[in-house]
Specification:
The chain is 50% helix and 9% strand. By secondary structure, it is of the alpha/beta class.
């Protein structure tokens, strides 16, 4: 076989691989490229296609290996660095992601997407200044670059710089006008500061504009939310089962509840609860019907073409996915293409875990997607699932607290002052003692029996504000009928959304304690609520709230919540 024929066959293989890639047939791409690389082991095109196909399949370990192999062959392959950056971003390895996107900018200093996405990484890591520098540079290179404009606007707005934010918006619109027809918009007077937020600003977004097949799809964290705000058709799509009287109160996400089967009616029950009791909208797509006549939104096995098209629109425009059972691609919509670590939870039910536990565990570990299940003996060690078990406490171990009369005693049990943030308690008490009849008591070096005796003679407890969740000490105090003050994060709220702890932050401890010193009757009321909590059972509304805070944790990471009802209506 002569050299021309060999080259023609090799070219044909690569063309077939590229065609398969365009059709999202990544299994074929992988096979063709691996066979090709057995002959031409350092071919850059084949290596890049292979790495990208692995990444699209969610096989980040193999993708990382191939891109590193590509860079070993040629260290100037900017797209390989870019794809490594995206892989590490999806795995929340932000330091590695940042390093690789910085390499892209060394090779292509004016790469708009790398500038924007690196800015997003710095923003997510808490470095707003460096994030702003990258967004600003992207805008300098292209004044009409939408993603960078939105991100600069977001930073200004979140910092309360409303006038600069609006000036920035008008300058952007002027750039668009000049580009289109040379016209310039008149800037309105900025003499009066903007003091009322009518609509929330767009959240920090990663660019999704690169269309080269050799580049992984950038994770579209909130681009659907931005589209929704300017597209009433999408809003109507997700409002379909929202009570009309609640339309104006739906300020949250568009949620797609998607499952192959409606297991025990749980998925449709969840979507109804979201629509009726939260700030979010939801639609429910069930692929296969069954004989159990559960509530329905959309069942695709009825084979109505309009339903398939509507389902595709829901999936393409959803901000968040609540997936029932393992997510599988379908010939008419590829759900795995849209799910990301920060926009998805996957809920499992017993039999699927029992039959496929190891495969499910490995998929979640590889893709960094949050899984959810009720407590089940089949859960495997070190799995990434969220499953919630209440800590047990025998209320008979502690005597009830006295009536809140005379001097109000507030205790702080601490085994580690640094972890418990004892200094915050001492400072808050310094502000209050002398103005109010309060006696602070720090409990240290005491046995549990001694600690319980002191609690039985006191009225309130400062627990801690460090880990964002409560433990046995707080439960003991609630069982005694104390008002308990503690820092509650979104993770804790996802587990115990209706806990009667008084939620505090480092800035408002004294103010929250003062309220109960002034309103002593509320100490008894809050104490009774604490006692009831110890015996509380699960109900659908509680489970709904758990999911809402779990969604928040998945999207935004660990953060303290300002209110127990931030996402609820009424």
């Amino acid at each position: 076989m002569n050299a021309d024929v060999v080259q023609e066959e090799k070219t044909s293989v690569l063309e077939n691989a590229k065609s398969a890639f365009q059709n999202e047939d990544f299994t074929t791409v992988i096979k063709l490229c691996r066979d090709y690389l057995n002959v031409s082991e350092n071919d850059l095109v084949a290596l890049h296609l292979l790495g990208t196909a692995y990444a699209r399949m969610g096989d980040y370990e193999n993708a990382e290996s191939i891109f590193k192999r590509e860079l070993k062959t040629d260290s100037n392959q900017a797209d390989a660095y870019f794809n490594l950056g995206l892989i590490y971003t999806r795995q929340q390895k932000y330091s590695d992601a940042t390093a690789n996107l910085e390499k892209v900018l060394e090779l292509r200093p004016d790469d708009l997407q790398a500038l924007n996405d690196l800015g997003v990484l710095y923003f997510n890591m808490g470095d707003t200044a460096r994030a702003g520098e990258h967004f600003t540079k992207a805008l300098k290179n292209n004044p009409t670059y939408k993603e960078a404009f939105l991100n600069v606007f977001e930073i200004l707005w979140n910092e309360g710089k409303y006038t600069p934010a609006l000036e920035h918006a008008y300058e952007y619109l002027n750039q668009l006008s000049r580009q289109d027809n040379g016209m310039k918009l008149d800037k309105p007077s900025m003499e009066k500061p903007v003091v009322q937020v009518v609509t929330p600003p767009p959240a920090i977004t990663e660019d999704t504009t690169k269309t080269d097949a050799s580049v992984i799809d950038a994770p579209a964290i909130i681009s659907a939310e931005t589209r929704r705000k300017t597209n009433s058709k999408i809003e109507d799509l997700f409002n379909k089962h929202v009570p009309v009287k609640l339309h104006g109160k739906k300020t949250g996400m568009n949620i797609a509840v998607v499952a192959d089967f409606n297991i025990a009616g749980q998925l449709t029950q969840m979507f109804r609860l979201i629509n009726e009791h939260t700030i979010h909208r939801a639609r429910c797509i069930i692929v296969h019907d069954d004989y159990l006549t559960y509530d329905k939104d959309m069942v695709l096995s009825h084979n109505k073409e309009d339903d398939w098209e509507e389902a595709r629109q829901i999936i393409e425009n959803a901000d968040f996915f609540h997936v029932g059972r393992f997510p599988k691609p379908h010939q008419k919509f590829n759900l795995p293409k849209y799910i990301r670590p920060k926009n998805t939870i996957v809920q499992y039910f017993g039999s699927e875990l029992r039959q496929n536990a190891n495969d499910i565990y490995n998929w979640h570990k590889q893709n960094n997607i949050t899984g959810v299940a009720a407590w089940d003996y089949t859960m495997i060690e070190n799995s990434p699932f969220f499953y919630h078990i209440n800590m047990m406490f025998d209320s008979s171990k502690i005597k009830p607290a006295p009536k809140p009369e005379g001097t109000i005693k507030i205790v702080h049990p601490t085994t580690n002052r640094s972890i418990k943030k004892t200094e915050l308690f001492i400072e808050a008490m310094r502000k209050l003692k002398g103005k109010y009849d309060v006696e602070p008591i720090i409990i240290e070096g005491k046995t549990n029996e001694e600690c319980l005796k002191i609690k039985s003679e006191s009225h309130m407890t400062y627990d801690q504000i460090s880990v964002g969740i409560y433990g046995v000490s707080a439960i003991e105090s609630m069982a005694a009928g104390h008002v308990v003050f503690g820092g509650i994060s979104n993770f804790a709220a996802s587990v115990y959304p209706d806990n009667p702890i008084v939620w505090i932050t480092p800035d408002n401890i004294a103010e929250k304690v003062k309220h109960y010193l002034v309103n002593k009757v509320e100490i008894s009321e809050r104490g009774l609520a604490g006692k009831a909590w110890v015996k509380r059972y699960h109900d659908p509304r509680k489970i709904l709230r758990q999911h809402m805070y779990l969604y928040d944790l998945v999207r935004y990471g660990h953060r303290f919540m300002p209110s127990p009802d931030e996402q609820m209506l009424g």
